């Protein structure tokens, strides 16, 4: 009775857009009730601040003094012509590229080795993915001590072996490399987890077939496994890009505080650190908001690209 | 057909006799990698046990001062307080995000309603709005308008909604046969009963995977608490670590290492306990 009437309606109803295919329950109020808490939070703490940020970017303002004056796009023009900001953008890009390349390359290789049917594979996998639980702040704290020029163990070893004690955090190139390595170290567990999941989904017959055809381990990796992992690599490039852009903050803040100075500004002052410095140290609220808008555009482009070019296997695991 | 059937056993034989030698280098590389990856943590662990005299020397022999070091950061440097705050915040955020995402996914998968595509796009769009970028305006809102500075609400409430969670659950629900929902409805099951009696029991792997991500994510919060929490009273442990290093001019590194390691324990524990679900949740989530 009620069964037939309920059945009839969804069948007859027009299926217009993709996400509507699977409806079963019919109630005009309930779904909104279920979505309400999510939307309230999103509206107040995401959409509203986003609009406020857009507005703030057009005003020269100071959060301490509480003054503001409309300057239009002047702050955008200033930032985009500022040599300091150019350097920050450039070093952020180099940092991101290095973190992504080194991180994905090592994670893919290690996940591939650990996914092979060897004794103790389960132990190896666990030992490779537990660093996922590390935070950028912990990574920064431990590395700060490891590479302490006077009492750090790295310099103790180096001075007894080759008699040098580099000042790791005062030398721009060394400090930059250190932040990159710490970020790669911290991110490794995450990348290995996803590569292991992807490798698990590759049917065993594929590599077996390659082995039967006489492919060596190396060949079977490059010619078979590597291409099959490319959707996952694609996904990870984007999540790692976002990770490098934002999670670098905690690491940099503890390890180098944006320094040491090289050229126009500190060599490890990346975009998000610059935003924090301007917004909460120099209290140039308007300029910080302008940087936020520029970065939002960047993230928007990244996300759109991810949806455009990532295929269906992309999932939202970030 | 026939040649294939003949050649298979032949190739299978050398494969089974070869592995020990073939796999040796795999073990070597993996062991080296594990040692390299673990070495900073092992270093931290050793230094955390040394006395303040030993810790500034090159010695890498374990000491006996771990609990002494821990006690000194736990009480004197407020680490206990920071840890407690992080626990409260992380558990609230993890539980809240899971519940809200389950409800949202239920609405998106099992209901047909007007403006569904618009609602979906609104959630989707939030993936492009990282909170880190909104801190200036968010600070203004939370500390100015809402007056939430130095309260747990400031670092819990803004993070309760999760696009990631909604999408992960939605994807998982879409893999569950629709006939199940139909059957449940015919049996007189309401949506909430369907969710609690059927969907949730079928979703433990996904819930576990998401719980790990959200726990680790919430525990690792750094920038926002640093900005919004002025006093140490409600500060989280990640920012607390920075305070430990800052104390005076002379850093007590043994104590700091003990603090860093203790900070690592809760996410590691959650990760270890839910590791199976974590891996399965993603292996399954990837199917479609």
From TrEMBL, chain B:
This is Carbohydrate ABC transporter permease. The chain crosses the membrane at residues 24-46, 87-111, 118-139, 151-169, 198-219, 253-274. Residues 83-274 form the ABC transmembrane type-1 domain. GO terms for cellular component: plasma membrane. It comes from the Bacteria. One of its GO terms (biological process) is transmembrane transport. PROSITE patterns: ABC_TM1. It is found in: Cell membrane. Its main location: membrane. InterPro entries: MetI-like, MetI-like_sf. CDD domains: TM_PBP2. Keywords: Cell membrane, Membrane, Transmembrane, Transmembrane helix, Transport. Belongs to the binding-protein-dependent transport system permease family. It is a multi-pass membrane protein. The keyword Coiled coil does not apply. The keyword Chloroplast does not apply.
């Amino acid at each position: 009775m009620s069964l037939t009437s309920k059945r009839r309606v969804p069948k007859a109803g027009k299926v217009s857009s993709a996400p509507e295919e699977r409806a079963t329950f019919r109630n005009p109020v309930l779904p909104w009730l279920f979505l309400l808490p999510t939307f309230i939070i999103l509206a107040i703490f995401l959409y509203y601040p986003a609009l406020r940020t857009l507005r703030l970017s057009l005003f020269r303002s100071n959060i301490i003094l509480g003054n503001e004056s409309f300057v239009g796009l002047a702050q955008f023009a200033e930032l985009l012509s500022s040599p300091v900001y150019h350097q920050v953008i450039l070093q952020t890009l180099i940092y991101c590229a290095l973190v992504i390349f080194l991180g994905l390359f090592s994670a893919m290789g290690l996940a591939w080795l650990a996914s092979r049917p060897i004794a103790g594979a389960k132990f190896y996998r666990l030992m490779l993915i537990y660093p996922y639980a590390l935070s950028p702040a912990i990574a920064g704290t431990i590395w700060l001590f490891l590479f302490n020029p006077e009492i750090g163990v790295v310099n103790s070893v180096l001075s007894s072996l080759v008699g040098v004690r580099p000042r790791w955090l005062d030398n721009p190139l060394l400090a930059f490399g250190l932040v990159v390595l710490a970020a790669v170290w911290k991110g490794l567990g995450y990348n290995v987890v996803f590569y292991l999941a992807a490798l698990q989904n590759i049917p065993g017959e594929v590599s077996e077939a390659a082995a039967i055809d006489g492919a060596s381990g190396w060949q079977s990796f490059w010619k078979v496994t590597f291409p099959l992992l490319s959707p996952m690599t694609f996904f990870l490039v984007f999540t790692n890009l976002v990770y490098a852009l934002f999670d670098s903050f905690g690491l940099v803040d503890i390890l180098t505080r944006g320094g040491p100075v090289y050229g126009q500004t500190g060599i490890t002052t990346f975009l998000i650190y610059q935003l924090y410095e301007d917004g909460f140290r120099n209290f140039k609220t308007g300029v910080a908001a302008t940087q936020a808008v520029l970065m939002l555009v960047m993230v928007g482009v990244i996300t759109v690209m991810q949806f455009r070019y990532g295929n269906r296997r992309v999932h939202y695991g970030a | 057909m026939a040649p294939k059937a003949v050649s298979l056993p032949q190739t299978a034989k050398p494969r089974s006799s070869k592995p020990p030698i073939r796999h040796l280098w795999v073990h070597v590389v993996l062991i080296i990698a594990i040692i390299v990856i673990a070495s900073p943590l092992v270093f931290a662990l050793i230094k955390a046990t040394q006395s303040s005299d030993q810790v500034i020397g090159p010695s890498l022999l374990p000491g006996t001062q771990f609990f002494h070091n821990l006690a000194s950061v736990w009480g004197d440097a407020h680490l206990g307080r920071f840890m407690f705050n992080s626990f409260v915040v992380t558990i609230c955020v993890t539980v809240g995000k899971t519940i809200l995402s389950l409800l949202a996914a239920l609405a998106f998968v099992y209901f047909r309603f007007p403006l569904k595509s618009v609602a979906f796009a609104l959630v989707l769009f939030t993936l492009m709005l990282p909170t880190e970028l909104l801190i200036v305006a968010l600070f203004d809102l939370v500390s100015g308008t809402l007056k939430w500075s130095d309260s747990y609400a400031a670092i819990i409430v803004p993070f309760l909604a999760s696009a990631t969670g909604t999408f992960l659950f939605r994807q998982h629900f879409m893999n569950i046969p629709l006939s199940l929902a139909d059957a449940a409805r015919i049996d007189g099951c309401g949506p909430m009963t369907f969710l609690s009696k059927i969907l949730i029991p079928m979703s433990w792997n996904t819930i576990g995977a998401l719980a790990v991500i959200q726990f680790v994510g919430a525990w690792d919060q750094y920038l926002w608490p640093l900005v919004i929490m002025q006093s140490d009273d409600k500060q989280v442990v990640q920012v607390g670590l920075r305070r430990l290093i800052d104390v005076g001019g002379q850093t007590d590194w043994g104590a700091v290492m003990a603090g860093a390691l203790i900070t690592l324990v809760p996410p590691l524990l959650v990760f270890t306990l839910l590791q199976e679900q974590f891996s399965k949740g993603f292996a399954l989530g990837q199917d479609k």
